[in-house]
From TrEMBL:
Signal sequence coordinates: 1-21
Protein name: Galactose oxidase-like Early set domain-containing protein
Domain Galactose oxidase-like Early set: 454-560
Domain Glyoxal oxidase N-terminal stretches: 60-445
InterPro entries, per database record: Gal_Oxase/kelch_b-propeller (IPR011043), Gal_Oxidase_central_sf (IPR037293), Glyoxal_oxidase_N (IPR009880), GO-like_E_set (IPR015202), Ig-like_fold (IPR013783), Ig_E-set (IPR014756)
Superkingdom in the source lineage: Eukaryota
Keyword tags: Signal
Length: 567
């Protein structure tokens, strides 16, 4: 493992970057008074814990599943992994790439049981390298595409069945595509290398393609820069799509004409291989039709070509753009992160904040094309004043470069794994070795000093229908709700499928809280309204967190029933 830079050097770099960020005028926000811009805080809060030194696979893809399981997998053509299949699982046939002609009796996917912290290997029959996925309303993971013989396969995964392949399900090859769960419970599968179209799961007997010229329009001839497009379901049922440096809104059901939004200022590509990241900011009950999208990081245009052809690793971008695509005339508001970052992961937290973690300060995504790992995560607080939204948090000691991932878990931690910028598993004599470890980052709200106000969720409904009233019971160790009932929120979180710097389908919905009644000493019941529509929260499984005085509980799983489904 490469040695981290000395602490004082890193601190100097961060301080210099923050001073620069605070002094810069911010483009795209004409209403911001420069004198009101405040300097971000450098507090180095948070804590890192090592959960597994060796999970057996490098976590290129990661998904939290109902029942508190985390699925991690990489690819089947990189040679043997570091975890064997169980005795009852068949070995894989020899592969042409990296396998050396040998039968592969190792696993390329593992399932982590969060409650016991134990791992179980699962066999993968076809190659899911650089694929896409979405959690279906029944809790099964739909996983689509990949490479070679896996590029037209859809796969279903659950802990009880393992992987089930649906051969030739996809109408075309899908490699570096994006999946998004829609309001009607279908999954839209969009893009992929040289695929300017989309299709649905499930589909009719004959798969149908819908052309999507926006992906053709946003392709850079020398680098593409529009793979793994960012897709977000908006509360009116339309879809926000971002590729390269441009965005559109479209109706996936009626194939309505695209509504083109302004290009993000600066002209910096944000999609693979220039790999920034994006989230839909939390949806709130007081403004149910309003939505904002945040896009951060990336690499300057031409950076991929320079890194690939002559080993020149240009500095990553450090700007973020924020836009409300539901507005009549959307405008990007630009701001700067304390540190530049490419290949970062953005994770929505139950508090409504965004954690930005992993990645590099130079180069791009791709084999051997990143340099200068960014070890410090950053917290983005959307409700703070412009210029005071970022906090630099405690650093990891493990570089997380290309093929890293991060996702929120049931306990409010952020699981961080992966990093393999090589064709195969390489552990020695390279700048950034393949990493098989799994860490948990504990955001500042998990500080033990907050345990006196930390709620403990006692009871919540197993499932709800749209708009239904629901009771959520919780305890407060200190006995009294701090600051009154208005300090209690219930956050509903859809878990992400994390890969290649984008968490597909992650979203946070704050529920409308009516009354908060005290039932006993330290025991409370909040009356909440379930999400109002499937456009706000598509049907399926969600994590429900109680947030008291800004501190979240651990979560419980609650299923939101499809419209018309029986109780």
């Amino acid at each position: 493992m490469p040695k981290a830079a000395p602490f004082l050097s890193i601190l100097l770099l961060i301080t210099t970057c923050i001073a620069h960020a605070a002094g810069d005028a911010v483009a795209g926000d004409p209403w911001q008074d420069p004198e009101e811009v405040q300097q971000p805080a450098v507090i180095f809060a948070g804590e890192w814990q090592l959960l597994h030194q060796n999970t057996g696979v490098s976590a290129m893809h990661m998904q939290l599943l109902p029942g508190d399981f985390v699925l991690m997998f990489d690819r089947t053509d990189s040679g043997p992994s570091n975890i064997s299949l169980d005795a009852l699982s068949p070995c894989a046939a020899p592969t042409a790439a990296g396998g050396g002609g040998a039968v592969d009796c190792t696993a390329h996917s593992v399932l982590l049981d969060l409650r016991s912290n134990t791992l179980r290997p699962y066999p993968l029959a076809t190659n899911p390298w650089c694929s896409s996925a979405a959690l279906l309303p029944n809790g099964t993971l739909l996983q689509t595409g990949g490479f070679s013989k896996g590029d037209r396969i859809a796969r279903l995964f659950s802990p009880s069945t393992g992987w089930v392949d649906l051969p030739s399900f996809l109408a075309v090859r899908r490699w570096y595509a994006t999946d998004i769960l829609l309001a009607d419970g279908r999954v839209l599968i969009l893009g992929g290398r040289r695929q300017f179209n989309f299709e649905f799961f499930p589909h009719d007997d004959v798969p149908q393609l819908t052309l999507f010229p926006f992906l053709d329009e946003t392709t850079d001839m020398d680098a593409e820069n529009n793979l793994y497009p960012f897709l977000h379901l908006l509360p009116d049922g339309t879809v926000f799509a971002f590729a390269n440096d441009r965005a559109v809104v479209f109706d996936p059901y009626n194939r309505a004409p695209l509504r083109h939004l302004p290009a993000i200022p600066g002209g910096v590509p944000r999609n693979y291989p220039s790999s920034g990241s994006s989230v839909l900011l939390p949806l709130r009950p007081e403004s149910p039709t309003h939505a904002e999208v945040l896009v951060c990081g990336g690499a300057p245009r031409g950076g991929y070509r320079l890194a690939l052809r002559n080993g020149t690793f240009v500095p990553a971008d450090r700007t973020c753009g924020r836009i409300a695509p539901t507005d009549a005339n959307p405008v990007w508001a630009m701001e700067e992160m304390p540190l530049p970052r490419v290949m970062g992961d953005m994770v929505l937290l139950p508090t409504g904040d965004v954690l930005i973690v992993n990645g590099a300060a130079a180069g791009t995504a791709g084999w051997e094309l990143g340099r200068e790992p960014v070890m410090y995560p950053v917290l983005y607080k959307q409700d703070m004043q412009l210029g005071a939204r970022f906090e630099v948090l405690a650093a990891s000691t493990i570089p997380r470069m290309y093929h890293s991932s991060a996702t929120l878990d049931t306990y409010g931690r952020v699981l961080v794994g992966g990093s393999n910028p090589h064709v195969g598993y390489v552990f020695t004599n390279v700048t950034y070795p393949t990493d098989l470890s799994l860490e948990a980052f504990l955001p500042p709200y998990l500080d033990a000093r907050l345990d006196g106000v930390r709620p403990r969720l006692v009871a919540a409904p197993a499932e709800v229908g749209y708009g239904e009233a629901a009771a959520v019971r919780f305890e407060v160790p200190g006995g009294a709700v701090s600051g009154g009932p208005e300090e209690v929120r219930v956050a509903v979180v859809a878990p992400a499928f994390a890969t290649h710097s984008f968490g597909m389908n992650q979203r946070v919905v704050s529920l409308a809280v009516g009354t908060v009644a005290q039932l006993d000493a330290g025991l409370y019941e909040a009356q909440v309204a379930a999400p109002p529509s499937p456009s706000v929260a598509p049907p399926g499984y969600y994590l429900w967190f109680v947030v008291h005085a800004g501190v979240p509980s651990s979560a419980t799983w609650v299923r939101v029933r499809p419209l018309g489904a029986a109780k």
